[in-house]
Design a protein that fits this description.
There is one protein chain. About 60% of the residues lie in helices and about 0% in strands. It contains seven helices and no strands. By secondary structure, the protein is mainly α. The N terminus is likely disordered. It folds into two domains: about 35 residues; about 120 residues, no CATH class.
Amino acid sequence: MAFFLSLEPSIITIYMIKGIIVGIIAIGGIIQFFRPQKNQSADTAKDITTVYTVPQDVEAVLKKSCYDCHSNNTVYLWYDKIQPVRWYIEKHIKDGKAHLNFSEFASYSKKKQIHKLDEIAEVVEDDEMPLSSYTLMHRDAKLSAAQKELLISWASSLVNAADEAAENK
């Protein structure tokens, strides 16, 4: 009889573990139906390219390394279809666009535009962008030394031109 009493808690434990696993799988399945809206827009009326000359090589680097989080056009990969991964990614995109949005750049005041260009040069030079969590899954977004120099010199030249124009007024 003591043998059966000792089995009872382990059987209960097994059923509890099975119930927890089934619950987790059910919740995981249900949350797949709650997807945030995709960050994709065809509107380019306020894009940075409407305000500043962006050379093709600079634009290519920006699109590959920056636009997924800092524009209204994110290129989604296979794992972006899985919740809660998508929620995590959408939060990064929302935060990134709140800080700098290349698709809305023309709507910024001139002073804010210059400040953002100065920040671009600074964060690229300090290796703060792109985020390591982003380049972990997007290896081709990692900036080479030449790409860093390209972005820094482009952004800095626009800031310097704006400073010179302000001095000449």
